[in-house]
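Page 47, continued from p. 46.
Same chain as before, 778 aa.
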Amino acid sequence: MHKIGPENRLARRAKLLHALVLVLCALLIVVASGCAISPEAKGAKAMQRGKDALQKKDYSHAALQFKIASKLLPKDAEPLYQLALTYLEVGDVETAAQALTRANTVDPKHAASQVKLAQLMALQANPEVVREAERRAQAVMAASQGNVDAISTLALAEMRLGETVSAEGHLKEALAQFPKELVPAVLMASLKIQGKDFNGAEAILKKLVEQAPKSVNAHLALEKFYRDMGRSTDAEVWAVRGLEIDPKNAPLLIDLASIQMSMGQKAQAEQTYRRLSLLPDKASRSLLAVFLFGDGRREEAITELKRLVKADPEDRAVRTQLISAFLATHRVPEATAVLTEALMRNPQDVDALLQRSQIFLLENKTSAAETDLNNVLRFRPDSAQAHYILARVRQLQGAILNQRRELTRGLELDPTLLVARIDLAESLIKAGDPKAALDLMNAAPDRQRDQIPVIVQRNWALWGVGDLPEMRKGVERGLGLARTSDLLLQHALLQIRAHDLNGGRSTIEAALKLNPEDVRALEVLVGTYVAVKQPQVALEKVKQYAAERPNSAVLQQFLGMAMASNGRLSEARSAFEAAKSADSSNLGAEFSLAQLDLTEGKLDSARNRLSGVLSANPGSLDARLLLGMVEEVVGNYETAISNYRKVLESESRNLFALNNLAYRLANRPNQQFDEALKYAQEALELSPNNPAIQDTIGWVYYRKGLYKNAIPHLTSAAAGGKVPVRMYHLTLAYLKLGDEKRARQTFDQAFRLDPTLPEAKTIQEAFSHSPGTNRESH
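Result:
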């Protein structure tokens, strides 16, 4: 073996060192050149990554890359155009339109952006917007002759405007130049269908397939035509032919499954859904589970959804379907476990937080729901859905003003959030402001105005403002679309107002058949008997409906309220207990039982029940307020004050808490009159004509020694002469001002009503020490 001497070793080391230096230099050159990559090059790479993600239907990653590209290429409209296409893929038309508008600002000559924006505008309900779409399409056609998309968009706008002759001319022009193009052919077929020329529409679509025999979309268009015409056999043929070209085409597979179901081919449909479940397309792979669930095979459906969630834990849409399936099968703990696990992986998973908050609401865990929603708003302050659910939390807590504020904020963030609009209108009506509710419903987006919930809520607002002719039109329009219990109830109210009592009752009975637990309808039915002085018949009707559904917590609760209002407290208690048994989480029944306890003087029982309600729902302002009243009755004034303060911490303008706290502070030995006056003035601002509020503020002035200020309020409070304590307060004020004649007159009235109140003895003693007063004893 050849031995390497010292010289050779040194030479080899020198060569190795030289090679390392060369490699290092090469690396430095690469790094240096990487640092010097231009924004244009980075933008191009981001564009390519975005297009690759879009092709793979990874829309969130695609949107991110296009946003990066638009910042790197601020003078290029293409990234914004691609961003708009991405938003359209996920159905976010509004954000897509915003991106297209920005693209047109960056480059007004970017034809694709102009045409795509014109297409979106052409589909709007406002004729002026459609007219603008027409102008934009014409401008693109003038700038780039032979632009098939521009010609098709112009024809679409003309069709929407009723300019069918012009539209047909442009579509013929497009088809002559581009016989294989899908859009002009489909639009021409639509035009033929509008004119009842179904054979002509069929011929156009068949010709399209002949011109483009390998076009899956052409086959899909013809298949949809046959399906719309009710020709299921022909539709199935063309769906199968299209799948021969592309066996994994999701839209065709979805249509084929639907056709098979309509033809009673359930087994074949299941196989088609199984083919869909194997596709990478996220939107279609859960359809097998939906089919199984609808077929009554709920466990199989849940198993399939579990498989999909396990395979892709980040697919939130499928996870949402799994949660819905769990809730529909009353498996709440499993639904909660899935969401909790998701939140352990990602505490900022807003979807999971929203869903878990809704589950907490079902369980009356308002504090837990509120915590999740506050986290949602921390991560996503513009979440209209979070504000809406938070409004429901406030409603359960009894914080109605805060509920209204959250609903308003939700609508500001998303004017299309229909449930928020309806709930806010309902709250305004209950608050005695139907005009504001009507304005709110009239401001609903055009595309929502023909929806039944919008029509129904607008009708309630019209009822509130007394516009019965307009309400009648709304009811007729709604019943023309669907026969719902709400619309029938509204129709019944109009009948009753027109003195058709029997017709109204008959309509209400029909409404209750559709929705047996609609207590509003039951209440109106009861009212028809009370109005003709038949209260016993009214009660029997309520008992009848409740007896038919003994496990309905809603009806048992309503029966309890009806019995309590008629002084039949024992029967009321039985009904509330039945409501509680029917739904153990029904805190309303427990609250009603606490009210009964208070009425019957069972103060310890009332306190225990209310403490239990607050333990389950610490945010319940109604329970907190009633507990304060219980503490007042037993003389625990400091505890009562503490409860009223807690109510005001959650809802600073709660009328009852303001009034009660002001009264109790005014009677405190440490003379907190200024604070009492502040709360009394806030209460008076909310309800200026309320006798109880007038009495409180008058009493606060009296305690402060401002007797002249007290008199107007106490006089207003005592008007009617039915509440002796208020009349005693007025008597004391008259005495302090030396008006003994009025003091005696007021006192006599009060004494006849209730001579046992402590104020009576105080005033009698004052009279006995007054030298100019008649000392006739009572």
